[in-house]
Specification:
507 residues, alpha+beta, eight-stranded antiparallel β-sheet, 12 helices, 28% helix
């Protein structure tokens, strides 16, 4: 498989595309004004402890408090009571369901962000601090030596574990990342020393100021993706920004100099994503409908509660053997669904409605195909077997908002629903407003400003709606067109009081 990383930098955002066999499979977008929070380490102050939901809310200095589940409290989580460093098993008086003392409001605690804030939800926190390096992950206050599950060779796992045991210091855990496979002991030792130096600097900041205090900020999106994605199996990296190019080269010279030759600086005036025919795929990310190769389609709908994906057969219906054709389209759907999950960065609960299959063996084939495709996904996933209704449920790790929310904003007119009030609904709303105004003020003169389309509908015909509205309420209404108003809005002015009264009499 040919793997490429394409980095495009514009005035207001950076975009990183991951291509596999020249096909877009991941897209990461970072706006210039947005600060990347995941990986940041903070000295925070506990604002509230809610035992019923087994969690604490922690002030870390951003707009909304972070969410710290008791399950993410390490056995040796460092926090402070009255300025004294203590650990979670010494704290008081908040208790969990087993009666163990955990935390109390006003305590200070060192936490790390594991998930970005999504919608009105604060970031998810953990007290199990981890510092990722190029090859290793350092875990302070733990005594573990772990190997990435993606390193499958048993001999290599034993070799790495032996090196970790030589490197590890008491009270510091180490995990070998996937990219550590095949790396020499000196390479791993150098990475470990870099991480220890970084942690010592963080430790020195614990007492420098009261919370909320940021102790460590993880690298930006581009740097983190180069760290996590750029490995020996990456064929090339193409960058169209000189500053980012120099940063990537400088980083690689420190950790893996032989990969430097795979990094290219793009010089042409043609936009990089256009040159590599990526821009068209980017535009399709926001589409609800995705066509499958050879016929059929997916309909993808995202809500706050879940993501639903419906598989449609399309042109496959014209084939003769119905069961075989259903299997073909479902297998094609599996490949595209897994690509779209990565591409759109969909997370949380996902429900897929496959075309019904009569043969249990075919359902098992689809299940196995899904498991095999998800191996390429870096996010943690968990799937259930296809039900008798043809539904497959899965959960996918959600770290940041879905890409759709980064590329698009909610419409001010429809508030993201895609729907606006019908003309008939607006007439009902106007009639209710007029009746309330007439009953409460006894006034007989009113000015209404509406969108031009609604204005045309209200004055249409000899027995127009606006005339009927005036006749029914025994009053005069001066109807105006206002192009600045959206379809579902209107503005009302009392001609007697000479002031706007829209909000006073709205329902």
């Amino acid at each position: 498989m040919k793997k490429e990383i394409i980095i495009n930098s514009n005035l207001r955002e950076n975009r990183v595309a991951l291509l596999e066999d020249k096909r877009l499979v991941e897209l990461h977008v970072e706006h210039s004004e947005d600060e990347r929070l995941v990986g940041g380490i903070y000295k925070g102050r506990i604002g509230n402890v809610v035992v019923s939901i087994q969690a604490a809310f922690v002030d870390i200095g951003i707009d909304v408090h972070g969410f710290l589940p008791f399950s993410d409290l390490g056995a040796n989580a460092l926090h402070f009571v009255d300025g004294r460093e203590i650990y979670t098993h010494d704290a008081a008086p908040a208790k969990d369901r087993r009666g163990r003392t955990i935390l109390k409001p006003g305590d200070d605690i060192v936490v790390q962000i594991t998930k970005e804030p999504i919608s009105d939800k604060g970031p998810r926190l953990t007290s199990k601090i981890s510092l990722p390096g190029r090859f290793l992950v350092l875990i302070p206050n733990e005594d573990i030596a772990g190997i990435s599950r993606r390193v499958e060779n048993l001999t290599e796992r034993r070799r790495l574990r032996s090196i970790l045991r030589k490197l590890a210091l008491p009270g510091y855990g180490l995990i070998a990342r996937t990219v550590a496979e095949g790396k020499s002991e000196p390479d791993l030792k150098a990475d470990f020393e870099r991480l220890m130096k970084q942690w010592r600097e963080i430790e020195a900041s614990f007492h420098s100021a009261p919370p909320p205090l940021q102790l460590h900020r993880d690298v930006g999106m581009v740097s983190s993706l180069i760290r996590d994605l750029f490995s020996e199996d990456t064929n090339r990296v193409v960058i169209d920004n000189k500053k980012i190019y120099r940063e990537v080269i400088r980083y690689l010279q420190e950790v893996k100099s032989r990969l430097v030759e795979r990094v290219e600086l793009y010089h042409s005036r043609e936009p990089l994503f256009d040159h590599l025919e990526i821009e068209g795929d980017v535009e399709k990310i926001t589409s609800h409908k995705v066509w499958l190769t050879g016929g059929g389609s997916l309909i993808i709908e995202s809500t706050e509660a879940m993501v639903t994906i419906d598989v449609n057969s399309g042109s496959y219906n014209r084939k003769r053997n119905i069961e075989d054709n259903i299997l073909r389209v479902n297998l094609a759907a599996v490949r595209e669904i897994c690509r779209q999950l990565r591409l759109r960065d969909l997370g949380g609960l996902i429900v897929m409605d496959f075309i019904d299959m009569a043969d249990d063996r075919n359902r098992q084939r689809v299940q196995k195909a899904m498991e095999e495709e998800l191996i390429h996904d870096r996010a943690q996933t968990d799937i259930l077997p296809i039900s008798k209704f043809g539904l497959m449920e899965m959960t996918r790790q959600r770290i940041r908002p879905a890409l759709l929310l980064t590329l698009r904003e909610n419409c001010e007119v429809c508030d993201g629903t895609g729907l606006v009030p019908s003309r008939e609904t607006m007439v009902t709303e106007l009639e209710g407003f007029v009746r309330r105004f007439r009953a409460q003020t006894r006034e007989r003169r009113l000015q209404l400003a509406v969108h031009p389309d609604l204005h045309a509908y209200l004055i249409e015909g000899k027995r127009s709606i606006i005339k009927l509205l005036m006749w029914k309420n025994f009053m005069y209404i001066d109807l105006k067109k206002d192009e600045s108003l959206t379809v579902g809005k209107f503005q009302a002015i009392s001609l007697k009081q000479k002031r706007e009264i829209t909000q006073e009499f709205s329902s």
